[in-house]
């Protein structure tokens, strides 16, 4: 196996955390999947801020870090109020970092934007499902309020993919 393949596999696995449980069956599953997705967005966004040389991608990455940090905090507050366990942020951050191998700088932007499209498509699906069918009014409201931001992220990621990806 070549090194580039392993590096890309690491990126895919890291971004896969953002969609590991798209078909969340319960509120607990939604909290876990959404938390994992949010943390993966923050970690990969910070990595993009460090590694990307493209100003537009860095602006997008900063927006991902800001928006997903805020959403993670809000979701954590709601989950604690509902006595739903929240995955350990430090452990998930370490898990994402361990999966991300050093990427070649020339392929980083392409890999990042392609995976942002995939991750946000899955996040939109997850949040739509929770907004439509949650048995917890607080989580239903959170998913409904957060969904438009995720949809904007997806559209922006698709624009970046058209320029830098595929």
From TrEMBL:
Residues 1-24 form the signal peptide. Transmembrane segments: none annotated. Keywords: Signal. Residues 27-160 form the DUF4142 domain. InterPro entries: DUF4142 (IPR025419), Ferritin-like (IPR012347). It holds the Pfam family DUF4142. This is DUF4142 domain-containing protein. It comes from Pseudomonas putida.
């Amino acid at each position: 196996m070549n090194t580039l393949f392993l590096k890309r596999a690491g990126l895919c696995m890291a971004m896969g955390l953002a969609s590991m449980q798209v078909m969340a069956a319960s509120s607990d599953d939604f909290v876990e999947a959404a938390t994992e997705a949010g943390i993966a967005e923050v970690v990969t966004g910070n990595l993009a801020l460090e590694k990307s040389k493209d100003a537009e991608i860095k602006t997008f990455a900063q927006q991902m870090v800001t928006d997903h940090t805020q959403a993670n905090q809000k979701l954590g507050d709601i989950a604690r109020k509902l006595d739903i366990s929240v995955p350990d942020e430090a452990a998930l951050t370490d898990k994402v970092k361990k999966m991300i191998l050093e990427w070649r700088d020339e392929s980083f932007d392409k890999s990042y934007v392609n995976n942002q499209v995939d991750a946000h498509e899955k996040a939109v699906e997850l949040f739509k499902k929770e907004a439509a069918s949650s048995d917890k009014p607080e989580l239903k409201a959170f998913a409904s309020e957060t969904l438009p931001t995720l949809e904007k992220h997806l559209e922006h990621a698709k624009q970046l993919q058209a320029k830098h990806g595929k």
